[in-house]
Amino acid sequence: MNREKALILLREVDCPENVIEHCVCVSEKATSMASRVQERVTVDMSLVEIGALLHDIGRSVTHSIDHGVVGARILREHGVCTPLQLICERHVCAGIPRKVAGKIGLAPCDYVPVTMEEKIVCHADNLTNHTIEELRIGWKTFFNGENGIILVDLLDRLHAELEEYMEI
Predict the structure, then answer these.
(1) pLDDT for res 80
(2) pTM here?
(3) Mean pLDDT for each 10-residue chunk of the chain (168 residues)?
(4) Which residue from 24, 146, 152, 164 has the highest number of Cβ atoms inside 10 Å of its Cβ?
C-alpha cells in the first residue's frame, strides 16, 4: 500500500477529516524519527509511513480505547497486510498489556508494540500534540490506580528507548 491508497482508504471508511490531518502529522513525525533510527537499526520506512497514516482508522467507528482493535479489524477486512494491522492494534497509549486490557474493556490480549516500526508509530502518535509530562499526568488520572502506573511505566520505557531519535 502507498500513501495515496492509505489516504483513500481513510476517506472510504468515513474517517473524520481532523483525524486524517492528525494521521498525516503522525506520519511525518514517525518517518522523521524512523530516518534517525535507521542509522543504527533497520527500519521499514514504508511500513512506518503507511502505518502512521492508518493508525487511527478505527476512529471512523469509535473514539474509545478500543479504536486500535477496531482499526485492525477494518484493515483486515480490507485485505491490508498483517504488519499494518498490528501497528494499528498496538498503538494505543504506549501499548496496553494483557493484565490491563481486560480491566479497561478490551479483550485480554497484549496490545504492546513489539517491532521497531510499531514502537515508532506509537510514540510519534503519543508526542503529536502532547508532551511526555502531559501524557503521564493524563494517563495516571484517566487510568487511576495500578492501571495508570503500568501504562505510565510503559510510556517511560518507550520514551527512554526512542528519545535520542526525536527532533530537538
Answers:
(1) 98
(2) 0.95
(3) 97 97 97 93 97 98 97 98 98 96 94 98 95 94 91 96 80
(4) 152
Structure confidence at residue 144 (pLDDT): 81
| DSSP codes joined into one string, the chain | --HHHHHHHHHHTT--HHHHHHHHHHHHHHHHHHHHHTTTS---HHHHHHHHHHTTGGGGT--STTHHHHHHHHHHHTT--HHHHHHHHT-SBTBB-HHHHGGGTS-SS-B---SHHHHHHHHHHHTSS--HHHHHHHHHHHTTTHHHHHHHHHHHHHHHHHGGGS--
Amino acid at 67: H
CA dihedral sign of residues 21, 54, 93, 70 = positive
Integer angstrom CA distances of residue 114 from 89, 102, 157: 11, 20, 13
